[in-house]
What we know:
CATH superfamily of the largest domain: P-loop containing nucleotide triphosphate hydrolases
Bound molecules: adenosine-5'-triphosphate, magnesium ion
Mean pLDDT: 87
Helix content: 25-40%
Amino acid sequence: MTEAHPIGLSIRGGVKVYPGTRALKGVDFDVRMGAVSVLVGENGAGKSTLMKLIAGVEDMTEGTITMDGREVRFRTKADAVAAGIGIVFQELNLFPNLSVAENIFIGHEPTRGGVDIDTEKQRVETRKLMERLEQDITPDTLLGTLRIGQQQIVEIAKALAQDARILILDEPTSALSAAEVEVLFRVIDELTAQGVGIVYISHRLEELIRVGDYITVLRDGTITGARSMEGVDIPWIVQAMIGSSSKEYGRSEVANFGPEIFRAEEITLPRMGGGFTVDHVSLSIRAGEIVGLYGLMGAGRSEFLECVMAQHPHSSGKFWVEGKPLTERDVPGRIARGIALIPEDRKRDGLIQIMAIRENLTLSSLPAFTKLFHLNLKQEAQTARDFIKRLTIKVASPENPVSSLSGGNQQKVVIGKALMTGPKVLLMDEPSRGIDIGAKAEVFRTMRRLAAEGLGILFVTSDLDEVLALSDRIIVMAQGRVTGEFPAGTDAAKVISATTPNAQVPKEAAE
Ligand SMILES: Nc1ncnc2c1ncn2[C@@H]1O[C@H](COP(=O)(O)OP(=O)(O)OP(=O)(O)O)[C@@H](O)[C@H]1O
Ligand SMILES: [Mg+2]
């Protein structure tokens, strides 16, 4: 096996020190050609940091990188690109106001005679890439109009356009649908067959086992396991990741639901050019109840949550909180009435990257710390510390900027920020996206605890196991409409069949 997959790049004794954090403590790692090397570990373990060293984005504090037997030193990303290394970052790095083609070729635009940008060539190449990724996206589409999963695909296309010999994929599938993941896996197969070496990072453990040939586990900046994927199963990974076997979550006891806490009636969001993104959706949630909103990508689930949060001025329909009409027309008004939304795209909607972790956490709840116009700083700081502990957010100091946190820990800050507003109704869009298995269990336990305290929770997920394990009731949406409603314990097949429009859908009322 080793012969079949020669080592294309290796890092020895890799150390990375950030102010206040030793993110990597002497790491050895090999990238094998024609194979997929997966990298796994808890949030903040150092995965992205290790990849940033290889991609020339961060400078290594100590250690060596060798390629084809020669020591190399990447001072900039351009150095690494020149050496044939491509990377898809965990956080999207795209420009919403540019077209898909412009995003893909930004920084390495094809030119005519070295002068003018050859926009036609850009378009042709983009069309080819989209075909390869089986996407129905035209080159001139404005990036900002794509849903986040499609943006992730554009990010992947951007890396493919480089023809890299080594391709790093840092959580490429966190916003992809199951079908899109399959497409990516086919592309990965093609690439490895051509001899490309792939590094693949994901928190979806089943995915790692399927796609990987080799696995390396990182824990707190140190490698705790590295081997060929043969014989590796999920318990092995979890053990190497967190030092104990799987943490379970789920419905513990039969909950005692309170009265209806939230109701939506005939919520409608027209689509530009006709039809509806959200098509007359009505639903209700009781205090203490966790309702899972399941469906395929583009079913209108996120948009429905945004309507509840007053983010779509053109939507219509009525809401009630605790039996009283929700007439406030803006986001602060809805927050004041006890609605909180944890958005899917944390980089765009959730966080202000340059502000301190503490400031981000308390941003939406400043009124609670303000008495006669004076901000109670001590109380604010204490509450921030409490939430950091409760959500096990890995920080060097609450005063560091949010940008210094690992991707998963940023997600936890978004959750903490919403919880701090003391909501009655919590809307969560893909709450487990990008967080590790231990933190996921923690977030799910937190959801359970909040529900037990009387909150109503509506969460969107594309993960079938998750919706089945966590929901007291499941509502399925397809093409903007509610196409099914199921009590806890419903057979998975029934739930899935409701996601396919126009099929015969059994409607089992849960009430
Ligand atoms: N720019 C930075 N400044 C300071 N500390 C940083 C910076 N970037 C990362 N860190 C710290 O380095 C450690 C490793 O972070 P890294 O992003 O590599 O984690 P990760 O394994 O990719 O986690 P995740 O699964 O959440 O993406 C964390 O403690 C993080 O807070
Ligand atoms: Mg990361």
